[in-house]
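Example 3.2
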Amino acid sequence: MNTLLLGATGGIGQALARGLAGRVGRLWLSGRNGAVLAALARDLGALAVPTELAHELEVQALAQEVGPLDLLIYAAGAVQKASLREQGMGDLERLSAANLTGLARVLKYAAFNPQARGVLLGVYPELIAVPGLSGYAATKLGAEGLLNVARKEFRREGVRFCLVRLPAVATGLWAPLGGAPKNALHPDEAAARILEGVLSEPMPEVLEIR
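Structure, written as tokens:
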């Protein structure tokens, strides 16, 4: 199973990488932090391809290097807390590159084998509709809309997609918000439950992790 995990250097991404190691034939790991990525790949016997999702040529090169995929997991993401009046356009573009337009670029160039699976780590909309998270909410929910269209467009290629709805998970993504809630899931627990669902047969279109 040729597998690409994007966002592999994040908290959930590293946990997913550890969970995938030894369970898939070839594991490609991609992320922005080249040093962390290289060390993780070395420890797991995986292949590292540092990629900036905001740069189309880098995404295109990534797709060419990994070749046709059996499993694609998009775990990249970014968050920032700022009110609508404070939100800078540059910051919004950064959020979009990680949460939305990066996914669009990956799906534009990725090649898939028959019966391939695509997985997007998403959110519960009601949990992020709070003051200060307009950019995060807009880009994460935009990615969900993109995935719904991808399901229809890629059906002729035999690709199936799963949206994973996640509660709070105790990762560094919460640092700009003052830290994760006390009831947040441990990344290893979240990763185990994600992989249990997306590697099952049939894979659900929506996997809700509580």
